[in-house]
Amino acid sequence: MGVRSSYVTLIKVIPFGDSLFDEKIVYSDRFKTIFNNSKCLSFYQKNKKISTFPKIDGLGYVCLNDVDALSLNRYSYEKDTKYNDNDFDYYYGEDDDEYSHYGHPNDYYSFSLFVKNKYSKDDRLNYYFFELKEPLIVSAYKDGIKAKGKIFIHFYPFGCVTIIAALSLKGIKNLNQEELELSISKISPNKIKQEWEWRCKWGNMSLSDIIWNVEKRLNTSLFLNNYKLDLTSKWDKAYSYTLIDKKKEDANYGYNENCTKVFINNKLVLKNELTESPDDWHVRQYRLRTYWRIIRLQELVLIKKELYLKYIGYLDSEILGMRDYRLGSLKSKFSPEYIKKTTTYDKQLAAFIRYLDDVILSSSSRYKFFYFKICDIYNLNKLRDRLLISQEKWVEECSNFKNTLIKLLTKIISIIK
């Protein structure tokens, strides 16, 4: 079995702060229109000039992804930036070869997960993103294998950023499955010893150095105060390859038996066996489109996972804090901190969690199947159950706060009388 094509995706999700719209974060003026603007979607749908969009130093403008924002004309902000549907190398920057059509942006962006949030009028609490107008082009080389692709950055107005490195591998036709998987395993920004030689517009450097430069520019451009992105979340990997059995080629029609596999964190998500012609453009395009839609679902699952972890930590901390205030001295119960604690509960957090579930429930059954399979890989359902328990305890503690406050006020009134 020979290798026909292979794609690798690295993805990292970085949520901001400890909760929704964390007050500790002070955004730069250029990004306040996204993260501090409850009408950010409406604003950028009306203002499509590039000059109105924020900019990341060294990476360029950040534009609205208007496929997920109820529009199909991607990058229609100015005439000279409108995308040409004949340019198939958008995603991987590939040369004009037999696989160049794999890079068509519609493979990724035609699959919209946008669902209007019926629980909130705040535009930020919807699942859509802003992104770099021009992704960062990267390339690498190792033992005759070339990797070429781009680094994308998605900015979610509810307070989250994802970094995605999409790579296409070349020079792999003579490899077997085991050799290919070994090469893929060595592509990671987490590895201390970088075995691939990487290159981008900043020069030759390791993949970890490229990512470090990206994260540094995000910190300096996004925030005004000393807040920094929490970079402790790990990188996740997905990859796909198609194996072709040349021994079973049909002499009359040129058809081969071949198999496409998709893995997330080395766990099989899809195995698709078809008999096709080597020149069947439509079948190969369908396979890559399916892969990219799986990546979209992986991104959603990872966002939910990171948000769940953040919110669990935040809620558990709030519960302990409120309990300490409630059980403290009478003097502490009249402090400004105590009064503030009695009103900390905000129903938009629970509503936003429900909305994120609606995002996938509105999609087709085919993609629900992949979504739940990816959820199993990350144990997302168990994490969600843990979050719901924390929410219930938070609501219970808030009600105890109100009851305690009423008792205190009643006692004060009786003393005055």
How much strand?
15-25%
Number of folding domains? 2
Q: Given the helix and strand composition, which structural class is it?
A: alpha+beta
Uncertain segments are 69-109, 408-417
Question: Which overall shape is indicated by the principal axes computed on the Cα atoms?
Answer: globular
Can you count the beta strands?
12
Mean pLDDT: 77
Main pleated sheet: 12 strands, antiparallel
Query: Can you count the helices?
Result: 10
Helix fraction, binned, reads 25-40%
Order of helices and strands: EHHEEHEEEEHEEHEEEHHHHH
Q: What is the CA-based Rg, rounded? A: 25 Å
Characteristics of this structure?
alpha+beta; globular; twelve-stranded antiparallel beta sheet; single chain; 2 domains; 10 helices; 417 residues; disordered C terminus
How would you characterize this protein structure?
The longest helix is centred in the C-terminal third of the chain and has 46 residues, at 281-326. Strands 1, 2, 3, 4, 5, 6, 7, 8, 9, 10, 11 and 12 form a 12-stranded antiparallel beta sheet that branches. The relative contact order is 0.14. α6 crosses α9 (365-378) and α6 (281-326) runs parallel beside α10. The protein has 2 domains: 2-236, no CATH class; 308-416, no CATH class. The protein has 417 residues and is an alpha+beta fold. The chain is globular. 39% of the residues lie in helices and 22% in strands. The N and C termini lie far apart (91 Å).
